[in-house]
Amino acid sequence: MLMVQDVDLTPNPQALKFILNEKLLNRETRSFQIKAEAVNDPLAKGIFEIPGVVSVFYMDKFITIEKDTKTNWGQIQRPLVEFIKNFDKTLIPQEEQISVSKEDETALLKKINEILDQRVRPALAGDGGGLQVTGMEGLTLKIRYQGACGSCPSSIRGTLVAIENLLRREINPAIEVVSD
Q1: Which of 27, 53, 82, 139 is 20 to 30 A from residue 172's alpha carbon, by CA?
Q2: Sequence-ordered list of residues with C-beta below 8 angstroms from that of 17, at least 6 positions apart, any chain
């Protein structure tokens, strides 16, 4: 039975990370910024049914939920724990097979993703969030924050600069990182 084992704070005061006893996904991340995006995902759709939930992000063994400022966590936590306990994990849409586009094959993007996988994504996951590379134009890397990171002021400013500085040091001093 799927269960919430623990709850972690995130740097975003409006987001909590709910740690589960079982894996939901093996490699993908799923991020839903509005209820309409979750229409084909029974897990996210069900979480959005809880009043006050404004975004849902999940991967591996956790779900990060962002709430509106008018709702307190007590109004969300108990219904979420009940929903998770009664949720049939087999209803989660299957993960897509990874297809490598020409852009992904570039040595630069491969190297960037290796660094992000080793040094950035684990830290973001620790805070209940994630990072998706949405494209590369020249030396400008486009990224999108997910989960708790998506609306957290420190990710939008501080983390973006830190990622850019890391990639400039490790790969190319002319790399720019922008939030998509």
Answers
A1: 27
A2: 7, 8, 9, 10, 62, 63, 64, 127, 128, 147, 148
